[in-house]
Amino acid sequence: MNAARLQTVEEIFHAALELEPLEVAAFLDRKCAGDESLRREVEALLAAHREAGTFIEAPVVRFDAGAFDDEPADRWIGQSIGHYQITKQIGSGGMGVVYLARRADQQYEKLVAIKLIKRGMDTDAVLRHFRNERQILASLDHPNIARLLDGDSTASGLPYFVMEYVEGLPIHEYCEAKTLSVTERLQLFREVCAAVSYAHRRAVIHRDLKSSNILVSADGVPKLLDFGIAKFLQPGEGVEPAATMIGLHVMTPDYASPEQMRGDAATTISDVYSLGVVLYRLLTGRLPFRATSQSPLGMARPLVRRSRKDRARSPPSGLPSTCGGGCAAISTMSC
What we know:
The chain is of the alpha+beta class. It folds into 3 domains: 1-37, no CATH class; 73-164, Phosphorylase Kinase, domain 1 (2-Layer Sandwich), CATH 3.30.200.20; 168-332, Transferase(Phosphotransferase) domain 1 (Transferase(Phosphotransferase), domain 1, Orthogonal Bundle). The protein has helices at 3-17, 21-32, 36-52, 124-138, 171-177, 182-201, 258-262, 268-284, 296-304, 308-312; strands at 80-81, 84-92, 96-103, 111-117, 148-153, 159-164, 168-170, 204-205, 214-217, 222-224, 231-232. The strands form 3 sheets. A 6-stranded antiparallel sheet has the order 1-2-3-4-6-5, covered by helices on one side. It has a 3-stranded antiparallel sheet with strand order 7-9-10. A two-stranded antiparallel ribbon has the order 8-11. Helix 1 crosses helix 3 (36-52), helix 1 (3-17) packs antiparallel against helix 9 and helix 6 (182-201) packs antiparallel against helix 8 (268-284). The relative contact order is 0.11.
C-alpha cells in the first residue's frame, strides 16, 4: 500500500470512528465511492478496533485488586532481604516492586535497589519472566548498564534480585537541568548507544528504551535501566523462551517502533528506532508525536504518515537555540 492510499484509508477510518454505528455504512458508501478494496481495508480496521478495545489500558495479567490487601508494598520497609535492609519503595510495576535498601550486616556500607515480585503475581508465567530478566542482567557487564549484584528468594519464596542503585535524573531532564549544548547532548547519547550496542552484541534487545529508563548520575554517567521486557534473541542455558502474557504492557507507545505497534516481533532495529525517539527529545525538548488513540492503527498512525514533504521540512521550532538548525549532523553518528 503506497503512502497516498494509506493516508486515505486512515482518514476514512478515523472519521468513521466519530460516527454512530448506524451511520457508518452510509458514510462508507459515500467516501469509498464504489472502491470495494478501499472499503474492505477500512472495514477490517474498524473490526480490529472494536476487538482491540482498550488493550493498552488493560494490565497484562488480570488479578483481584484485593489480592495484596493483606501484604501492602510498604510492609517490607524496615525488613531485611538477604544482607540488605529495605528503607523505602522507589518504583512499582504490574509484577514487581523496587525498593531502596542498605547493606545491613556491618561488613560495609552500600545502597542497592531490590526488585521483588509482588505477592499474588508469582504465577508460573510471571516467575519465568522474572527469572529471564535476572539472567539477562547477569549476562551484561557494561559501565552504562545498571549491574546485577545478587539474587535469591525470600523466606516466603518470593524471588528477588539486587541491583546497582542509580541516583540520577532521566536523560532529558538532566540535559535541561544542566543546559547542555547540542554537542554535549550528542556525546551523552553516544554513551547510551554504546550500551545498547553492547547488549545487541550479546543477543539482548531491550524493547522498552525511553528517556525515563536512562538515568544520568550527578557526575554525568548515563545508566540504562529496566530490562523487564527485554529478551534474548537466542535463548540459551538458564533462559526460557519468552512467554506471551495477554494484557502485558510490552511497550511504551510514544517510543515503540512500527513493528512493535503492529504486534510483530521486536528486533535490534526496534531498539534503534526507540533510540531515535530519545535523541529527538534530547534535541527538541519534545517527543516527535504522542500516542493519542487506543486502537493499534491510531497509535501507529504518526509513525507511517511521513511523506517526503514532512521529512524535508525545516527543523522543529523547539530545537535548542544552540543547535542553529544543524541537526542533520546526527545522521553521521553511529550507535
